[in-house]
Every structure is written in structure tokens, then in C-alpha cells.
Amino acid sequence: MAKLILFVLIMLPVWAMTQQTLDPKFEKKIEGLIDHSITTISCDRLQQKLSTPNLYILDAREKKEYEVSHLKDAIWVGYNTFEVEQIEEVPKDAIVVVYCSIGYRSEKIGEQLKERGYSRVYNLYGGIFEWINHGYPLVDHQKKETLKVHAYSQEWGHWLQKGEKVYK
């Protein structure tokens, strides 16, 4: 019995870190691109935490992607043009969740935030694609709910199981 308890205690952090996507092939793709330098948060967990005080959601996609749709109340920070000074109003001890299409760009932005002293930074596992695949809401540039998602490219759009793909 003691060995079983010890095994569970050892494995608990590993199980907690394991993220599940709705599509195992998508998960394999994600795992080939991110290196977990930033702690990930699942779509389900973020959905549960949306009303948490001091939570900031940052969108690390390009502006045209953000304008098609984004998570409600997300702050656009971009990727190629990102500067930490863009979010100087965000307290360093705030909960910061960064997302992009699937998690690669957001992980890189998260690394920059950690380097600049932000202590509670998370990367949304599977990004906006996994968010919409779970059926969670998005808003457009007019803050109206939408099913449209900028799919980035035909290759990446393959991973969108729900929503309306936009490529412009």
C-alpha cells in the first residue's frame, strides 16, 4: 500500500502536466513544437478561471488574426513586434495567460515575460484552435461573438475542427 501511495505522489505532477487535446494527432503536433519552457494551462482550466481577479489574457498572434477573433478581454500583443513595455500596466504578480494559434508563438512571448520578472505566466495549450475546438466562445474586433477563426494557413487550418476558417 505504501508503494502505491508513493507511486501516486511521484506521478501526480506528471499527470497534472499532461495536457489532453480533443485530437491525439493535434497533441502530437503541439508536443513537437513547444518545449514546455512555460507552464501550460488547458482550455478547460482557463475557462474555469476566467472570472479570477488579476487574470490577464494576451494574444500573441498577428493583428489580422486577432481582428478576426480572439478570447474575450484578450489584449493583443503580437509576436514579431512584441515589446514587454506594451503591457507595463499588467502587474508582475498577475496571472498572465498567453495564447496564439496552437502554442508556439505564445510560448516564446511567455519566455520574454518570465525573463522580465512576470512570475505567473502560462501558455494556453493548443491555443485558440483548441479553445474553439472545445466550443468555447470567441469575439471579433467589434466584441461580438463569432465562430470565425483565422486559420493561419491551409496546413494549420487542418487542426481546426470547429469554427469557420478564415485565411485572409
UniProtKB/TrEMBL annotation:
Keywords: Signal. Residues 1-16 form the signal peptide. InterPro entries: GlpE_sulfurtransferase, Rhodanese-like_dom, Rhodanese-like_dom_sf. PROSITE patterns: RHODANESE_3. The keyword Magnesium does not apply. It comes from the Bacteria. The keyword Cytoplasm does not apply. This is Rhodanese-like domain-containing protein.
